[in-house]
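Q: My labmate handed me this sequence with no annotations at all. I'd like to see what the chain might look like in three dimensions before we decide whether it's worth expressing. Could you predict it?
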Amino acid sequence: MSEQRLLNVSSDTTLGNVEIAPEVIEVIAGIAAAEVNGVAAMRGNFASGVVERLGKKNHGKGVKVELEEEGIVIDVYVVMDYGISIPTAAQKIQDNIRQALINMTALEIREINIHVVGIQMELKEEDMIEQEQ
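A: Here is what I predict for the chain of 133 residues:
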C-alpha cells in the first residue's frame, strides 16, 4: 500500500473527528497475537531485531494492515512453539485480535490472516529456569 490513510472512527460527534492511524492497529494486533499461548515470536526484519536487542520493544512487528474499500485486512506473521496445535492457536490469535480491536477501536475487521513462518524448537530461557527448579 503506497499511502497510509487514517481511519475515521466517528463522524457524528459535535466535538470533532476521531481518526486512527494504521500503525495503531498494527500495535494492537501485535500485542493481542503475542498474548496467545503457543506464539513464540512475531516475524520482523533485521532492523526491528537490532532495535529490540537495544531494549525497545516493537509491538507492531510481524503485523501488516491493509486498508481496502471492502474493509481492513490484517496479515500476522508468527513463529509458533513446537508441539502445539497450529490450527487451534491460529484461531485463538484471530479471536484475540478481533476482540482487542473491537474493544479498543470499535472497528470491524474483514480478514485476519495468520501466516506461520516458523517453529521454535528450543525451550525459552524462562522455561529452562523453571525446569531447573
